[in-house]
Amino acid sequence: MSGVFPAPSSVPFWGIPAAIISSGISKIHNAVNNIRPSKRAQRAAYRGLLDQHRYQSFAPQRDGNTVKWFVDGHDYMWAISEVLEAAKTQIFILDWWLSPEVYLRRPPELFQNWRLDDLLKRKADEGVKIYIIVYQEIPENDSMDSAHTVKALEALSPNIFVMRHPSHDIFSPESVYFWSHHEKLVIVDNRYVALGGLDLCFGRWDTHNHYLADAHPTQFNRTLFPGQDYNNSRVLDFQKVQHFVFNQLSTLKTGRMSWHDIHVMLVGPSGQDAVLHFAERWNFIKGQKYANEPRYLYLPIPTTTSTAESIVSGDPALYEYLSKDTPQLVATSPSTNTPAASGDPTTQMQPTCRVQFCRSASEWSHGVIPTEQSIQNAYIQLIKEAKHFIYIENQFFISATESGGSIVNLVAQALRDRILQAASAKEKFKVIVMIPEVPGFPGTIRDTKTLQIIMGAQWRTINRAGDSIMEQVAAKGFDPKEYISFYHLRSYDRINGPPSFLSKIREQTKLDYEQAQAALDRIWLGRADAEYIKDGVNIYEPDRQLTTADPTKVRRWSIPKTVEEAMAILKKYESASSPSDKLVADSVASHALREDKPLVDERWLGTPGEEKDCFVTELTYIHTKVMIVDDQKVIIGSANLNDRSLKGDGDSEIAVVIEDTDIIESQMDGKPYQAARFAATLRRQLFKEHLGLIPPQNATPSDASQVTNAMTPVPSPPDDTTHSPEDKLVQDPLSEEFLSLWNGTAKNNTSILLDIFKTVPNNQVHNWTQYSDYVPKVAPGHVATDLSVEEIKKRLDEVRGHIVEGGINFLNEEQGLVTGFTFSKYNPLLPLWV
């Protein structure tokens, strides 16, 4: 099987013939519906492939890759827009959710041609072939409306092809109800590969500021989150996303939920493994679901007879199938007008990274037998090999310390064992874990069973029910807090919507703010059919005693029939403004970072009481899927730290393990240390953002056109900050100075935000009685203190970054949350959530 993958150093990826890019193993499974080769031969061939590679992955380690990280959606989406715009031959996109109407550059007022569907149409009209796979959701459970994605995109051009999978037909043997396709992968011209946690969909674009507010009463051109993109999944999930311009939440009353994520982009030999993964998936779905639809063609198959013959083990029918003439991918060469080829070559990033692709793939998701769980294998092995320090950011933290239970992935076991090894040897060793305060589902913790199950499963992993990491470390006589700690992210902001000011505008213009907002929606919509206009805008009102929006409390606002009418409404509404209005900040989220002026100096046009009511807080949703080990190795991709993602036959996932040979001088436990540039700079950037040590990342019209190095594709390098004072503060994750800064900042931020907003979860509430007494009866995320607005601003100005302490002792007296049949391996529904 050596013919499947060329040696990493033998040929550059962009010169590889199309026939070599895809392996024969994929066609075994793509051919299943046409011919029936031996299942035993299939399993043996695929097992043989996995056994050749570290972590039992489908892909080998490959040297000579150039890899760049992107923190938060602002930078990544700009970079991917440049790469998509430069596409010459083909684009592959594999997403859990894809919103055709998402803006990749913002504010939309300045970048109206950079909506994803407009960009893809532009490329398709140039002759670029665009292949997209999206997860076909169960409508009763998820609101992505993949049917809209298909309809909206395929209507743009015959060069756009969109598949959905899996089937939910109860009469089909291929139907799948529990699992999803969860990868977030973009490949352009077989050269540029991007993967990580960011789907190209609503709710993902964000800056390091992590805005909660986007109300602009006198400057609507500053809107950053148009229509459905202004979302708070903790209050109300997305609704009717095909009506993409219609804001479901009031931007005057409910803060959005900010989004923290990481993506990487690479160029180099490992790109062929990403292409292989996509082509295998496409061909598998083609054969299973679209076999009788000639519009959807198979992607490449190998034409080298030795490769085909070795894999099919002499099966004549399959050999004939693999050898027949089918359409091939186009292998592209570097182009001088691609984004990555621009600029001074001497300043570009170098191909210093060893990369290995890993995945979770199985018969239902990828047509492969046996199941591949190389992402879990990689996590476990990387933890075992850790010498000093592990940093984890993940959307979930659900695992097992013992085999044979209801949770099958053993990442927690590896963490426990490595901690006990260090403790027994009296070595300094730290694990820092960042997870969301609450899973991203609407509802209160008290009333929402989904939240209780997921949080309970996480507590069972962390510190409860007997077999958790911290309990097992403590059982051996060691203090687990010396070795592992947990944190969340939380933001605050101020909504620029004082009722008295808006009332004055209404008196002058006879228009409500919501009417102006509806007019703006009409402009975003552009060409509209009667259905959109007839429906109008529904805005859900939040319940003051809950953390959710009540779908029964709806205000409807009509949509202007034409763009011209909408523009006239906006012009009339904004005519009531004065120069002083424009001096009021529409967001104060930047003050959590290195903002120059004090928060108390921010202007306000309403009353002090109104300003107090307009301060809001919300968790910053950690959606990242990354682990950094010893500032040397990184694993990043789409996989959550739970069974759904890691067991292989659940959700399909893709990830990369990255080891950079570019070494920088650093510190570890107070001693000189050689760190890998990719791992160390990514970790330092994350720590600096969480601690508020970076400048604000504003996206106003005056800022938006300033393209920074962080926003450009590989191989354009990010700024080198390794010698900055802020980097020095975070370079040594084991030093007492750093740990004091990290824990002190988390403690101070937690204290301030709890005093002002009284949020849950926290470590002060241990049972349901305390919960009922503690949770304030205010609208979601609003102020719950008697402090004056001046005192509130002074206290909030002391918040640095977004890090807060992990609420791991929240409700720890309620044993029913972590025990019982719910968490039994005999509970058939448990796999849905864990």
Automatic annotation (TrEMBL):
<protein>
    <recommendedName>
        <fullName>Phospholipase</fullName>
        <ecNumber>3.1.4.4</ecNumber>
    </recommendedName>
</protein>
<feature type="domain" description="PLD phosphodiesterase">
    <location>
        <begin position="177"/>
        <end position="204"/>
    </location>
</feature>
<dbReference type="InterPro" id="IPR001736">
    <property type="entry name" value="PLipase_D/transphosphatidylase"/>
</dbReference>
<dbReference type="Pfam" id="PF13091">
    <property type="entry name" value="PLDc_2"/>
</dbReference>
<feature type="region of interest" description="Disordered">
    <location>
        <begin position="694"/>
        <end position="726"/>
    </location>
</feature>
<dbReference type="InterPro" id="IPR015679">
    <property type="entry name" value="PLipase_D_fam"/>
</dbReference>
<keyword id="KW-0378">Hydrolase</keyword>
<dbReference type="Pfam" id="PF00614">
    <property type="entry name" value="PLDc"/>
</dbReference>
<dbReference type="GO" id="GO:0035556">
    <property type="term" value="P:intracellular signal transduction"/>
</dbReference>
<comment type="similarity">
    <text>Belongs to the phospholipase D family.</text>
</comment>
<keyword id="KW-0443">Lipid metabolism</keyword>
<keyword id="KW-0442">Lipid degradation</keyword>
<dbReference type="GO" id="GO:0004630">
    <property type="term" value="F:phospholipase D activity"/>
</dbReference>
<feature type="compositionally biased region" description="Polar residues">
    <location>
        <begin position="697"/>
        <end position="711"/>
    </location>
</feature>
<dbReference type="InterPro" id="IPR016555">
    <property type="entry name" value="PLipase_D_euk"/>
</dbReference>
<dbReference type="InterPro" id="IPR025202">
    <property type="entry name" value="PLD-like_dom"/>
</dbReference>
<feature type="domain" description="PLD phosphodiesterase">
    <location>
        <begin position="618"/>
        <end position="645"/>
    </location>
</feature>
<dbReference type="GO" id="GO:0009395">
    <property type="term" value="P:phospholipid catabolic process"/>
</dbReference>
<keyword id="KW-0677">Repeat</keyword>
<dbReference type="GO" id="GO:0006654">
    <property type="term" value="P:phosphatidic acid biosynthetic process"/>
</dbReference>
